[in-house]
Amino acid sequence: MPFLQRLPKILFFLLIVRPVVYLMLGLNVMQREKLPTQGPAILAANHNSHLDTLVLMSLYPLSALARLRPVAAADYFLRNRFTTWLSLNLIGIIPLDRQGQVDKDKVFEQCQQALADGQILLLFPEGSRGDPEQLQPLRKGIYHLARSYPGTRVTPIALHGLGKALPKGGSMIVPFNCDAVVGEALETGEDCEAFMGELQTALEALLAQCITRREALEE
Predict the structure, then answer these.
(1) What pTM value is reported for the model?
(2) Where do the Phospholipid/glycerol acyltransferase domain residues begin and end (predicted)?
């Protein structure tokens, strides 16, 4: 994509998103070097807040933003004209209709095409935000998507604190230190149950490394 077409997204993240993530929230990033730099790849993170997508994208340099494709809830990100324009043009989401009004096969095809184009998908295998800072059971769609395109690996990432910074139902960001811990990329293999267990275990282990989680447990 030509630089001038990428410029609005770069400015949006440089001037708005990154100051919020790194200055207002004070994001701690651990093991950033484990992030995949090229696709096909999938980032699999736990999900507590609508800030999660922007935080994951902020882990990458501005020059890499064009390679990132978050799969995000259409009922939130496309809820009005402004957020629709912002989400599609500046964030670059693949909208997922959780209410079933859009064919899931169409979403799956868009994700497959992104992987085929060497992009990095951002997914939340819990499906939706659960209780704040609590890991919910994972859905198997991520396994089948990763298996659908050869060479796709899944990198687990634990996020903590964002459920308090912008909780479910909230509209104002509350300054609250947050963590992002990146794990080792996982191969999908032939056994879906084994992979899902491995991913769940990896996310739980990464959550245990989060500074804000340890501090909360010690209080």
Answers:
(1) 0.90
(2) 41-162
Enumerate residues 6+ apart whose C-beta is below 8 A from 17.
54, 57, 58
Residue 156 has what pLDDT? 98
- Nearest Cα neighbor of 58 from 103, 99, 13, 23 is 13
Q: Give the separation between CA 188 and CA 64, rounded to whole angstroms.
A: 25
Report DSSP state, residue 159. E
Alpha helices in 31-149 (DSSP H): 51-58, 74-77, 81-85, 104-116, 141-148
Phi-psi region of 92 (alpha: psi -120 to 50; beta: other; left: phi over 0): left
Q: How many CB atoms lie within 10 A of CB 122?
A: 24
CATH (one of 3.40.50.2300, 3.40.50.1110, 1.10.8.60, 3.40.1130.10) for 6-216: 3.40.1130.10
Low-confidence stretches of the chain (pLDDT beneath 70)? 98-102, 132, 167, 169-171, 219
Place of tokens 């693949």: 94
pLDDT given for residue 150 in this prediction: 92
The pLDDT of residue 219 is 67
Please name every residue paired with 56 in a beta bridge, in sequence order, or none if there are none: none
Residue with token string 């909208």: 95
Residue type, 27: L
Predicted local distance difference test score (pLDDT) of residue 208 = 93
